[in-house]
Write a structure and sequence with these properties.
4 helices, homodimer, 202 residues, 14 strands, two-stranded antiparallel ribbon, 13% helix, mainly beta
């Protein structure tokens, strides 16, 4: 077993596969993006990279707003469709039977069937080559109420989210631990000398 | 069922959970990052967002190099550990029993146990608030040879990659389709008039 020395490439995986909606309630489009991520926790900032030749590029550049809609197993067909078809040739909301819904802050529609949407205002556009990076403030979040319990806690694990890895969409699989779990394991020496890992209470 | 109107937040999910190695072969550190993504396909560019108070921040700012190591189910414990412990208090390579390996281009170590590493040169640092964004050229890729077949095709699906969603690490689950699968379904009208979706050959 060893390493092969390849040239630089975009082999980060897995990455999100989100449906980015743009435009307004009358004239809108959806583009699927995998080049997307959080840039800052406080204030919350994100980005989406889009090729200048894509139909959504001009719409977003004009409106300086977009909405990032998380995708689920139920939405995987629509998600894929919105990534390979152009909004120049088809009304993607109509073709995918997705429902436009008004956001809180942005004038572009959010996708009703998405469990969670980040409403975004573009604050900077950085051209990089094949893609321009749209850096955004996340100005509001729309959350499906079926994922929030009586105490206001979000159960995003119940949304059936999907991820994208090297050309394939995947359902999320077995949970392997919550953040900090490795710290919660306490190494304890038993009287017999055997070292065991015991989960810490609380 | 309806939408709850929340304020803006970093609820993009799922996102990568990568181990970022930095420094040099003698003095190195590993920091886990979920705020990471591809920014441009050609030339290949990526970013990692890091809080200025983190130990790796100063190292990366000085060297202007880092390596993004993909993480797997076998590495989930080390991945979590490197996200919650500071390199000021512990030698993370030693504590996690991970192996430093020389990269092709960058002087910082890559993690041998990672199936795929993106070697990166930082080209710009953008302060955003809690985090600074390190924008990078991906200058080389190191791929575990066990994932590449005789024809040179990468089988990243065999790596056991993990993803991170709302505080929990997950194994990738059931594959739901390859990019373009929705297009490959051909809508065909049967003589009886019923519309069926039939997968296209090839």
């Amino acid at each position: 077993m060893g390493k092969l020395a390849w040239k630089g490439g975009t082999l980060l995986a897995p990455v999100p596969a989100v449906m980015v909606s743009c435009g307004d309630m009358d004239n809108s489009n959806i583009i699927t993006a995998a080049w997307c991520g959080i840039m800052c926790s406080d204030p919350p900032k994100t980005y989406v990279s889009i090729r200048p030749e894509r139909h959504s590029y001009g719409i977003i550049k004009e409106k300086m707003e977009l909405a990032i809609n998380l995708t689920t197993e139920k939405l995987v067909n629509a998600c894929d469709y919105c990534g390979i078809k152009s909004g120049r040739d088809a009304d993607k909301f109509e073709k995918t039977h997705l429902t436009k819904e008004k956001g809180q802050v942005v004038s572009c529609p959010i996708i009703k069937e998405s469990p969670l949407t980040l409403e975004c205002k573009v604050i900077q556009i950085i051209p990089m080559g094949s893609h321009d990076v749209f850096i955004c403030d996340i100005v509001a979040t729309d959350v499906d109420d079926s994922l929030v319990d009586a105490k206001g806690k979000l159960h995003l694990d119940k949304a059936g989210l999907i991820t994208y890895s090297h050309g394939t969409y995947y359902r999320l699989g077995k949970p392997l631990g919550n953040i900090g779990f490795s710290h919660a394991k306490k190494t304890k020496k038993k009287p017999g000398g055997k070292i065991t890992n015991k989960p810490r209470r609380g």
